[in-house]
Amino acid sequence: MRIVFAGTPEFAAVALKSLHEAGFEIPLVLTQPDRPAGRGMQLQASPVKQFAVAQGMRVAQPVSLRLDGKYPEVAREAHELLQSTPHDVMVVAAYGLILPRSVLDIPKRGCINIHASLLPRWRGAAPIHRAIEAGDAETGVVIMQMEEGLDTGPMLLTGRLPIAADDTTASLHDKLATLGGGMIVEALRKLEQGVLEATPQPEAGVTYAAKIAKEEAALDLAQPVQVIERKIRAFNPFPGASATFNGVSVKFWRAVVAAETTTAAPGTVLAATAQDGVLVACGQGVLRVTELQKPGGKRLPAAEFLKGFPLEGGRFG
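-> structure tokens emitted (317 positions)
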């Protein structure tokens, strides 16, 4: 079976690697254009492009696929490339571009998406973040037949995964990427054999995982401690949850719900020691912060952070 693959970040690169190692023919890879990154803001290829180039795969990086969009000539060239590239199916994983009907109709067997949630819960751009933030007990991967709606297509395969109490978006991402890589190979094998069955998504339980905005990083310490702790894990590694201390933005990278109770005002630093970490009063409960970062500094365990940034007796805004 010949596959056109469309994807951009590491989640997609894991799937591309799985398909390559499984022996599928991949005559074309689509990925987002190179973007500035790092301190020097040098152009950097996506993880998918890096893997594809290393394997000698043909790569295209159109900025749009919409013939009626801002870049119709670019989209037309991309359509012509897809139409002239012999393939049976397109596999899509966190590509980042909308696939219009004109693209969905090109592959003989349609377009199949690897989505990191238990659909119909968390359709949209940030399903891993939102599942952790909401306190979901489990998540998973759905292999889905694509249609024009946002993650509305019928489900082909479902894999479930528990969310651990200490999972961050980074750790859960890696688990789901590995799960998705194995599942897409299984799905395509079943498609080859003619035994891949589609199931419509339930109408009940639809939620949307909106894209993460940097503004969400600012913690409201008047919220219950459980809500704050989940946000810290959900926003690790991006955008990084933060609170201000004497006008300085301090990022909270790791924290747990403490056993202590308090009647102090939210944001009050109850303790800040090498032994206890940083205990912060919340609207309901106490947060124990164990890894922090000041602007321009490194992520540090609380004991190391406090050597250069004392907090005891102060209050986070």
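The first strand starts at residue 2 and ends at 7.
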